[in-house]
Amino acid sequence: MSNINFVPDDYVQSNESRRANLMCLVLFSVVMAGLGGSFVMIKIRQRACSAEESLVNAKMTRMQESIKKFEELQTKRKEMMRTALTTAELLEPVPRSVVLASLTNNLPAGVSLVKVKLLQKELTNRSAPAIAAKSKYQAAQDQKASAEAEPKANAEPKAETRMEIEGMAPSDVQVASYIERLGGSVLVTDVALVESIEKKVGDTPFRQFKLTAMLRPEVHLTKEDVEAIKDKATQSVYQF
User: Fold this and answer.
1) What pLDDT does 238 receive?
2) For the segment 96-132, what is each residue's pLDDT rounded down to a tens digit?
3) Cβ contact 110:174 at 8 Å
4) Dihedral sign, CA of 7, 8, 12, 15?
């Protein structure tokens, strides 16, 4: 016996169409939900990146401020070092007026100074080259000794003062006498004659001489010594 379908074909097609539409709607909803979730995740990541970028910018700003303060401190340090060096130059162990007074005190009769120039130069420690090869033990001992001596050298930098003296004298005898007197001075050492030229003022001949000398290192004068040198220099000027 054959089955007889009493449902109209239009109704069947309508049901199938509704099922298809419902399936498409469900799929569309799933796709939109996925897109919405992706959009939310992207926004969350953007906010996280923005927050991290803000933290990095804040750190960079703090670092720039720290670098600026460090540069300002370095500038102040250089200014303080410059001021300290200037003060150290002004606070000389032997004032230049005392040196000039000592040079005047040793002038023989008839000799006068024309020009005195003082040049100060910082001494640098230079190690001499090794003459012979040393063993490893000797090299280690020398290195240890130099390492121990280095802080002392850095703590007390030394400087030498060189003097250029120009003057006039009646003859070479007075020039030699002046050199001898300077050699016995407590302030001056290594006196050397550079030149002695004969010149005339009218019909009177005289010797124009030039000397070089060194200020004795580590010279420290008391107040009484300074006053005595200045008083003697004043008397020498009057006698001259």
Assistant:
1) 43
2) 777 888 888 888 888 888 888 888 776 655 444 444 4
3) yes
4) negative
Give residue 117's domain range.
96-123+155-239
Q: Residue 135: inside a domain, yes or no?
A: no
- Amino acid identity of residue 16, one-letter, is E
pTM > 0.85 = no
Is there a single domain that holds both residue 191 and residue 105?
yes
The rounded Cα 207 to chain-centroid distance in angstroms is 47
Collect all residues with Cβ–Cβ distance below 8 Å to 108 and sequence separation of at least 6. Answer: 169, 174, 177, 178, 181
Q: What is the pLDDT of residues 190-209, one digit of tens each?
A: 889 999 888 887 778 888 99
Full strand arrangement of the beta sheet holding 188-201: 112-122, 159-169, 204-215, 188-201
